[in-house]
Specification:
Distance between the termini: 41 Å
Radius of gyration: 23 Å
Shape: rod-shaped
Helix content: 55-70%
Structural class: mainly alpha
Number of helices: 5
Length: about 110
């Protein structure tokens, strides 16, 4: 891989494939992807008018059980303050402070 962004490299390879200058097998080998994935990328590339943004992945929505950085910091601070605290106590403190339930298993 050259000294360029991963998506720019994909764009170059898929562009060559679209122009017929490269085969799907060669593209798959170059990008270390399956031929089926290359075909999907090519279809998406053509559908989005051959733009680079077509090859970038979509952002995932946040996890339903994800914790904010403030909650994680509060958990770490409570544990550092006294390492013998139980997980249940930490869960109750965090629930009272942030009004959000968390599982004792995640602490």
């Amino acid at each position: 891989m050259k000294n360029i962004n991963k998506f720019q490299w994909r764009y170059e390879i898929i562009s060559l494939l679209d122009k017929g200058m490269m085969t799907a097998l060669d593209s798959a080998w170059e990008l270390n992807l399956s031929i089926r994935h290359i075909r999907r990328l090519l279809a998406k590339f053509r559908q989005n008018h051959r733009s680079l943004s077509a090859l970038k992945p979509k952002l995932r929505p946040p996890a339903w059980n994800g914790k904010t950085k403030e909650i994680i910091k509060a958990i770490i601070d409570l544990k550092k303050e006294r390492s013998t605290r139980s997980n249940q106590y930490i869960v109750e403190c965090v629930a009272n402070k942030f009004l959000q339930k968390i599982s004792a298993a995640t602490v």
